[in-house]
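Following the same procedure, backbone shapes were mapped to integers, as reproduced here:
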Amino acid sequence: MKNIRFNLIRLFLIIITFADSKNVEGKIKNQDDDFLTNANVISLPSGVGTQSDNWGYFSLSIPNNDEYLIFSFIGYLSDTILVKKILPYNNIILKKNVIQMEALNVKAKGERIKNSMQDNELVSYINMDGEMMRSSFDLGDGLQSNYPIFMNETVSGAKNISFRGLGSEELILYYDGVRINNFSNSTVDLSRYSSLGLDEIQLMFGNTENSLSSSGAINLVPKILKKNTFSFNQKFGTYDYGGYDTYGSIGNKKVSLNSGFSDVQFKQRYQGSYRDEVITSYNKKIMNTSMKVDSRLLIKMMIFENGKKYVDRRANDSLDLLNNHFIFKLDNENKILGDISFYGSSQECEEIGIVNLKENSKSDLSNGFGMKIKRKINHSSFGLSIEQNRIKSNHIFYDDKISANRNQYSINFNIELIGQKKISKVGIRNIKIMFNQEEIDDSFISQNNLFNENKFWKNNNSKIFASIIDNNVWKKLLFITYSSSNRVPSIDEIIKNKIGAFLLNDGLLNEKKSMFEFGYKIHRNDTEKLKSVNTTFKIFSYQYIDKIKHIYYDDSILMIPVNYGNEKISGYEFALNIKNQDFILNAFYVNHFFSDQMAFQLYPKDMLRLSLQLKYLKTFFKLIYRKESQKFLTSLNSENNLSYSSLDGIQTFDLAIDKKIKYRMLDLGLNFSAKNLNSPNQELIGVSVYDRRYVFSISLLIM
């Protein structure tokens, strides 16, 4: 009888406990994206706890009045996080005892995917589920509003961004570490990308480990959720802007299938016109799948399609573009060789354009494969990557048909020495040396025999990065970078230069570039008060030999590249980030010094970004101030005369209001944004730019 009473009392207490409790779950990893098994999780003040499983996953039922969770693992620094800050399937990243500096903006939401970007350098991470992307038209719009990035919105509606006054052709776009702008035209149009199917964006200023000839990189990290979800987002805006996207996932810890699609349309008008004459529409389809064979092998398959249609009724110009991408990837952790990745990709691009009533079209097929190995040995690491791509391209320019073939082969090797932790807390953080050899074999055949030739390019590129760290309360990082590289003109640049040979110089040379960067970063993070401060100051200089410049032709979407000469750009950057639970302040300022500003066209001498985000009654209010100086443009008219024009500097505000409502398994999001609130309309070759735009979006998430 006593046992029955005791069991009834215990059952009653258990029922009360579960009735007044909540569940928290997530995954525990280290900075190398490895799962931590048997990591400790303790909830305070109740003291209940659990441990993570073989995949780093933990699930814990805690009393409602518990406020903190403590995460600990042998050899790692413990971390204390507020319970209300932990969302389902959050990643908890524990740091090794050798403390490393964090990026300026780091937010982890959803499952992070292992990628090839070098996390030990200064990379900015942008969460795709944050208000920044919900209040933006596309990726280009979101990045321009929040970072010192210049975006050139072309006549055809393309949004080409560039860093530090450098050409948008020097930008590399990755998808889960695999390059996807490897077509005949390497220029990245970010108007065709949204947050659909993405977990985060990684921004790298300067050249990357896998492409030393680049001047900035964007890595799109796919969203592969290992649970059942469904989301829908609808946007409405001025100039008949409208769009929707939907995304869903089905899966568990081992197998996951994610898929979605979107459709967007907006309009522009000529300066002084009262009706919209430029119409642009976009559509996208995406599918991401993954399968975890065991604790060390991950298989991924990623397929996506981007479409774009552009019509200019006044100029009688049009553009119909469709891109298809297929990527297959294996990530394996080998005890002997280290981290190994194998990948293969097949990418197609179909583009049909009409310029001045004449056809200007092309079709590209790019097939490639690659292998990457990274091995850590004591306080050093070695990396080797090999990549080969074949591009077949067919162009139609003014009744001439041109066929081009390009075979690319590159090998990259890097070695990194990692400093040991010292009692003084001050010492060398790391020294990294990178080498790259690239071989490119081109062949061109013209139907009218205007352009028949073969070209072979062979380049050696190198880079060295070194840093010193001070691990006191206010952590400090001093770093320096130097690189020497060569950029081979794209197939599109070579052909368009030949087409314009009767107007400008004939033939394109390698663009040689040397880069120097010196930076100083200060960081402090108070985990108990959830406060952090980051500030960075950088000085940089780029020296070009035979710089390639693009010149607009006859007020159309056609641009002709030429070797402009030997040019130099230098400057300095300042960044500040202060945040706590209800307040985030970001400030970015960049100042450039040009040897000839016409060589770096459509880029301002200085840029300023200030953003203030406040949280009140579970609603986010964000105000962004943007300032850019005057920009210059070179164009060639129908009489073959060069002309120079400019865009006035801008000084404007953006506003975003974001509200999320949660009820059980439903998340409802409401967002209103306003762009260029006090900026006077300007024109670029007649088309209105920097005009006021308003967008209202509604999103629904079911988990």
The first helix runs from residue 2 to 19. The first strand starts at residue 21 and ends at 30.
